[in-house]
Amino acid sequence: KAGVTQTPRYLIKTRGQQVTLSCSPISGHRSVSWYQQTPGQGLQFLFEYFSETQRNKGNFPGRFSGRQFSNSRSEMNVSTLELGDSALYLCASSLEASLEQFFGPGTRLTVL
Amino acid sequence: KQEVTQIPAALSVPEGENLVLNCSFTDSAIYNLQWFRQDPGKGLTSLLLIQSSQREQTSGRLNASLDKSSGRSTLYIAASQPGDSATYLCAAFMDSNYQLIWGAGTKLIIKP
C-alpha cells in the first residue's frame, strides 16, 4: 500500500509570492490534516479536510488556505509569503481524524 | 489552555539501556494519544496509538502507557540501539477541539 506523498519536497520562494503544496493520502483515507513545523513553534495544526469539507482549522491567518478534491487529494496554498512562513509543511492522512494518522515526508519551504 | 509537555528535551544513553520518555497533558478529555518518531529532516512515523480506554500498547521493543487521571503517558524503549536515535513526539487528540495537540519532542541519542 502506497504511503502519503507530498509534492514538491523542496521549495524556495521570495517574500510576497504565493505557493501551493500538494498531498496525496493513502488510498481509502478521507481525512487529510496539514501541519506546520518550525524549530521555534514545533508542530502546529493548520486545518483538516474530510470528504472535500474543511472540518477544523488552527490559528493561522487567512493567507493559509486549503482544499480537498473528490479523490481525497489535498492542496494547501499560502499567499503573500513572509519570512516566517519558512517551515516544514507536513500532511497526514487517516480514515478519520481521530484515528491513527500517517504522515508524508513533508515539503520544506524556504522564503527568502 | 491545552498543553502537551515532553521531558526531557534531550537524552543521550549508551546502547543496550532501557529508557523511558515522558509525556504529560493538561486536559484529561483526550480521545487518544499517539507516539511518533521523526528522523532529521523527515516526516513522522507513527509508533503507537493508545485509545483513552486503554492503559498500554506494545509493539516490539516499544511499550506505551497512558494514565488519563494523572495526565501522563510514557514510552518505554527496551534494549536501545543506535538506530533508535531520533526525535520522539507525543500528541494527544482532544475531544473538545477535535485535533492533535503536540509536545515539543525528546531528542534521543543512543551511543554505540
Describe the structure.
- The complex is a heterodimer of chains A (112) and B (112).
- Helices cover 0% and strands 54% of the residues of chain A.
- Chain A is built from no helices and eleven strands.
- In chain A, strands 2, 4, 5, 6, 9, 10 and 11 form a seven-stranded mixed β-sheet that branches.
- Chain A starts with a strand and ends with a strand.
- The mean pLDDT of chain A is 95.
- Helices cover 0% and strands 61% of the residues of chain B.
- In chain B, a hairpin with a 2-residue loop joins strand 6 and strand 7.
- The N and C termini of chain B lie far apart (41 Å).
- The relative contact order of chain B is 0.34.
- At the A-B interface, strand 5, strand 9 and strand 10 of A face strand 4, strand 5, strand 9 and strand 10 of B.
Write the layout of secondary structure elements.
The complex is a heterodimer of chains A (112) and B (112).
Chain A lengths: L4 E3 L2 E4 L5 E6 L6 E8 L3 E9 L2 E5 L6 E5 L5 E5 L8 E8 L7 E2 L3 E5 L1
Parallel strand pairs in A: 2-11
Antiparallel strand pairs in A: 1-3, 3-8, 4-5, 4-9, 5-6, 7-8, 9-10, 9-11
Chain B lengths: L3 E4 L2 E5 L4 E7 L4 E9 L5 E8 L4 E4 L2 E6 L4 E6 L8 E9 L4 E4 L3 E6 L1
Parallel strand pairs in B: 2-11
Antiparallel strand pairs in B: 1-3, 3-8, 4-5, 4-9, 6-7, 7-8, 9-10, 9-11
